[in-house]
Automatic annotation (TrEMBL):
Coiled-coil segments on the chain, per record: 73-100
Pfam families on file: OEP
Ranges for region Disordered: 118-139
UniProt KW keywords: Cell outer membrane, Coiled coil, Lipoprotein, Membrane, Palmitate, Signal, Transmembrane, Transmembrane beta strand
Main location as per UniProt: membrane
InterPro entries: MdtP/NodT-like, OMP_efflux
Molecular function in Gene Ontology: efflux transmembrane transporter activity
Xref: PROSITE patterns: PROKAR_LIPOPROTEIN
Membrane topology classification: Lipid-anchor
Location(s), subcellular: Cell outer membrane
Name of this chain's protein: Efflux transporter outer membrane subunit
Signal peptide start and end residues: 1-20
Superkingdom of this protein's organism: Bacteria
């Protein structure tokens, strides 16, 4: 009966406090989040005349590198996604953010503590003579076991604002992970495309070296026959050695790209080898997405906005420090001086009640913290707006670069066709003895320069196409963020 009366007393005293706490918890201190205003153009300045030939569903799946139609490239990106150590670091940071968000959610639940222990205490008798006569006077052993429950009522929304900030930070970390993965993928694809163009440049120089070797042999034969002079032989030999030197220079450049790819896929350069290929991936037609799509697709912009949400919530957390905290606690257990009757009804104890606590004076610390939180929010808003503007700038730059390079490539191909025809005619004239070999050397140098210019332009266009895809957010969207555990 005594036990039931205690429970009824607990319910009658604590229930009104809990009811009031629930009613008050409907409010949350601090501003509700609103997306910062950003000037968004209706369309890209360089989008006029842009050819939207490629289907956008390839980008929506996230495997944007498949637009280049190279299976070996696809395999390398798969390895990167699974073994890149920079991405692994970002993934670990994301899991940390997830754990922080789970911890914030746990603050809404009561805390249950269990303790058991033994203490020995002594209290003086008030007489020095008495303490000298008995060394054990006033010493007492106490056995305690206690179960306690405490719960902080989220009256002013402190916990809810904290959870809002933690969730936003988790989402920002997920976007950072997506941005890092996109960055590493972009770097890998760029390196791979440059390497494949370099293979073609090597084949071009090798073919040119073979041609120059034949020209040198022919010139030497003519010199021995007295048809041409020693200067023609020297010119032919100089041309051959210069081209061989250029071909040797490509060896270490290719090795650097190959080593960079090895590190990106998580392998040691010594164990990685990328065989020479005769195929150069085709240049895709990149769809020009609208600015609104850019905001949805770019992970760095998403991360910047999540940071604004977190900073906005932290303002509310800082402002709740002006208001009292209400904690409801319940504790009960057993206390005895002997083991024999430790856990028994006469030795039980319990306590229950609310605790209201607030700071009356702190020398302006709370005001300073609110000012700090508001300044931090202004910083994140400016960073978000700058990230959006940088995104627009990057897209505009790469779009105009691709457009100009396309026009330049057309002119360069026409120049190459003319150079090849000029070389053919010049060689025929030299074989007929109508011109000197110096004329052939000059035309050959011009033709080789045009050949390399066309390949260099192709390499630049391929790299710019990758950069544009990355600037548009690649294959990232909100559905591709790592799911919550």
């Amino acid at each position: 009966m005594t036990h039931r009366r205690g429970l009824r007393f607990f319910a009658s005293k604590l229930a009104p406090t809990v009811f009031c706490a629930v009613l008050l918890s409907a409010c949350a201190i601090g501003p509700d989040y609103q997306r910062p205003q950003v000037a968004e153009p209706a369309q890209y300045k360089e989008a006029q005349g842009w050819r939207q030939a490629a289907p956008s569903d390839a980008l929506a799946r996230g495997a944007w590198w498949e637009l280049y139609g190279d299976q070996q490239l696809n395999n390398l990106v798969d390895k990167l996604n699974n073994a890149n150590q920079t991405v692994a670091q970002a993934e670990a940071r994301y899991r940390q953010a997830q754990a922080t968000a789970r911890s914030s959610r746990g603050a809404f639940f009561p805390t249950v503590d269990l303790s058991a222990g033994k203490t020995r205490a002594s209290q003086g008798t008030g007489s020095s003579n008495a303490s000298l006569s008995s060394s054990s006077s006033g010493i007492r052993d106490t056995l305690n076991t206690q179960l306690g429950v405490s719960w902080e009522a989220d009256i002013w929304g402190k916990l809810r604002r904290g959870l809002e900030a933690s969730n936003a930070s988790e989402q920002a970390s997920a976007a950072d992970l997506a941005a890092m993965r996109l960055s590493q993928q972009s770097e890998l694809v760029q390196n791979y495309l440059q390497l494949r163009v370099m293979d073609e440049q090597t084949r071009l120089l090798q073919s040119t070296v073979e041609t120059y070797q034949r020209s040198l042999q022919m010139t030497e034969n003519q010199y021995r026959a007295g048809v041409s002079g020693k200067d023609a032989v020297a010119q032919a030999q100089t041309q051959l050695k210069s081209t061989q030197a250029s071909m040797i220079d490509l060896i270490w450049q290719r090795a650097q790209l190959e080593n960079a790819i090895a590190v990106l896929i998580g392998e040691a350069p010594a164990t990685f080898n990328l065989a020479v290929s005769k195929d150069i991936p085709a240049l895709p037609q990149i769809p020009a997405n609208l600015p609104s799509q850019l905001l949805e697709r770019r992970p760095d912009i998403a991360s910047a906005e999540r940071a604004v949400i977190a900073a906005n919530a932290n303002i509310g957390v800082a402002k709740t420090a002006y208001y009292p905290d209400l904690t409801l606690s319940l504790a009960g257990g057993y206390s005895s001086s002997t083991y024999a009757d430790w856990i028994s009804l006469p030795n039980r104890f319990w306590s229950v009640g609310p605790k209201l606590a607030m700071t009356l004076f702190d020398g302006g610390q709370r005001s300073a913290e609110v000012d700090r939180a508001e300044a931090s929010y202004d910083e994140t808003v400016a960073k978000y707006r700058q990230t959006v503007l940088d995104g627009f700038r990057e897209v505009e730059n790469y779009m105009v670069q691709l457009k100009v390079l396309e026009d330049e490539a057309g002119v360069s191909n026409e120049a190459l066709a003319s150079a090849r025809e000029s070389l053919r005619l010049t060689q025929n004239q030299y074989k007929a003895g109508l011109i000197a070999y110096l004329d052939v050397v000059n035309v050959q140098a011009t033709a080789l320069s045009n050949e390399r210019t066309v390949l260099t332009l192709l390499q630049t266009r391929l790299v710019a196409s990758v950069q544009l895809i990355a600037a548009l957010g690649g294959g990232w969207d909100g559905q591709m963020q790592p799911r919550e555990e």
